[in-house]
Amino acid sequence: MKFKGFWYDSLLIFVTAGISAVFIAMTFLVEKRLAAAECLAFALVIVIALYRAFSAKSRYKKFIIKTAKKLDYTDQKVLSNAPFPVAVCDEAGTITWCSEKFLNEISKGEITSAENIKSFTNGVTVDSIVNRENVCVLVDGRYYTVYTIPYRSSGKGYTALYYLDNTNLKKTELDYFNSRPYAVLIEMDNLDGSRSDFRESELAEIRSRIEGTLDDWAESYGSVMKKVSEDRYLIITEQQNFSRMTEERFTILETVRNYEYKETKAGATLSIGVSGGESIRACEKGARKALEMALGRGGDQVAIKNKDGFDYIGGVSKSAEKRNKVKSRVVGSALAELIKSSSNVIVMGHSYTDLDAIGSAVGIVCACESLGIPAYIATDRKKTLASTLIERLDGANKGSVIIGQEKALDLMDRKSLLIVTDTHISTFVEFPKILEKAETKVVIDHHRRSKSEIENAVIFYHDPNASSACEMVTELLQYINPDIKIEKGVAEALLSGIMLDTKDFVMGTGVRTFEAAAYLKDKKADMISVKKLFANSLEVNKLKTRVISSAENYKGCAVSKVDFESPDVRVIAAQAADELLKVSGIKASFVIFENGDCVNISARSLGEINVQVIMESLGGGGHQTMAACQLKGSTMESANNVLCSAIDNFFENN
Predict the structure, then answer these.
(1) What predicted TM-score, i.e. pTM, was given to this entire model?
(2) CA 126/CA 93 separation, integer angstroms
(3) Which has the closest alpha carbon to 99: 111, 511, 91, 457?
(4) Beta strand 224-229 with 181-189: parallel, antiparallel or unpaired?
(5) Tens of pLDDT along 60-97?
(6) What backbone torsions phi and psi does residue 2 show, to the nearest 5 degrees?
(7) Cα–Cα distance for residue pair 300/293, rounded to 1 Å
């Protein structure tokens, strides 16, 4: 503790002493006895003055400490008259004293001798409040901000808590946030005139009735709807209305999905993008991005844009196939121009490439070679599920196009073109370094759209209605180069990818799938030869049977855990998951297995259960009928528990 001003008092004493000494000297010249008496008196005054000057700091400190002791925070005479509730608790949080206002407003007249302050701070401990300086609590419908003053008395620690009522301010704040703008952009799916079971006049009537249903739904939430194009609508609403929509899981999705016209389901669905923002302009811009994401995931769902990405509601139905090939023609022509202007082309799939990734890559290489541009497939031969196809390429003297990461990086220059197939997620590509180095990128994928997508792609060809990446590439080949010559091996590679993802033309097939297969069959693709690419060793089949036999039924889902080690564990898990769908009463299958430092889950379904949504809740992704995820730092048992919880949440929300 520092005390200022004492140097001034000391200087005054010495100046006075000097002046007194002069007067004593003058008196000594006149009267010596009087001067002697003055000397004694002067000496006594000097001693007393010096003592008080040097002891002043000590006396002031004692005075302040004595005064501070009188100002104890538990002094009821002071705190009882405070205009706000006050309580005092010890270090454990036990209330030692409280004011009458605290009893009346906070504890409502009920408090025990061992009552803890947590009972009146919404469960927040006194230590947490002290560290946070203040905390907002809700008591009987009123908002209070609690401030603390810690102190010590008689060697013990105490904390005084002051409850300041800011209900009006808090309600104003809540009203502000509840009135923040939200944009809801809606697109009506599957009524584009391609349906043959309704006449044009009937389609117009269906569209009009659904539009009326949308208008009524928006009005029920106090919102305004505006039609922006033939099948697109914009709803402007507030945060509080959006919260109600979310709580009720956007019931309009199911209403439109089940809408019947003349006792026949219209087949219409809605894709909805929602976004908030500081302005209507920002909301509308975010809603457009969200709608694009909803459409990219197959439609019939809501995509909600937030700070961390997107949240999704719905997506339980199978998306309808679009028969129009205009987009394929446009993309094929643009891709041909890109290839021609490139020095070379590197094709890359997802990590642990399968027949669809390698097959589609082989198709792209064939297209590049037909245009006179060298092309290569970047993959890891030791980490692939398409080893049989790669071995066949080696046997046909085409293995030289398959290269590793280092060689691909050496070949790449500023004019190189990177084409990513069978994935659009940046974290799922086989070699992230190649993706980082590439200046010109093209993405071709059929999986439902997810966050962390590859950015700055010159062409982002994404079609969740396609059965496989091989189907998409097969269509593109016809437009990249109409005079292209597809060899038998290339046709079989593309057909193997289609057969893999459709489970031999059972799952996710449409008219365009069979058209692509017919085109490849015309290019001499042999089904028996393709089927051999799926052949497994006897040991793999035995292990696959072991996984199937250990499966358990959980709410109509087969869940199996792999209890052995095998270099082919990924193939075994995937094929076992496929086989489990053939069991009566099973709607989806999940196989859990360990691989390296993480636990993997391979998921399959017949379409009724959207396994993509379940896997996304665990950090994975994929397609509606085929998905997967990785759980790092997890055990088999904990992975089984979180999977069961995810299945429960799916059924609860859908």
Answers:
(1) 0.64
(2) 6
(3) 111
(4) unpaired
(5) 445 444 444 444 544 555 666 778 888 888 888 888 88
(6) -105, 140
(7) 12
